[in-house]
Amino acid sequence: MAKKLVIKVTAGADSPERCSQAFTVAAVAVASGVEVSMWLTGESAWFALPGRAAEFELPHAAPLPELIEGILAGGSLTLCTQCAARRDIAPADVIDGVRIAGAQVFVQESLADDTQALVY
Questions:
Q1: Which tens digit of pLDDT belongs to each residue from 6-25?
Q2: What letter would DSSP give residue 99?
Q3: Is 0.70 surpassed by the pTM of this model?
């Protein structure tokens, strides 16, 4: 089993099932003791802002704020630099624990030894 899991989610409210699946997998992996780095790109970038996750609804799915809390409790949550810039999101705008970083960091994390990368 991979010692680290890097998850890149591109979906947001535009594709709720795919979005929820990515956050669920990340939260379950953290709860299972796996080191997780989750990347918010595309429409999922909005979930880096306070209150946005609470607006997300999907029947029979865990609440997104709880999943994010679980991910941040033992993993990392990163907002793509370009995605943030396209949406005028500044570092001061994001929820506590979210960092903003670019493709170089994503590639470094994804190619590290004992790492598995998933894209949703």
A1: 999 999 999 999 999 999 99
A2: E
A3: yes
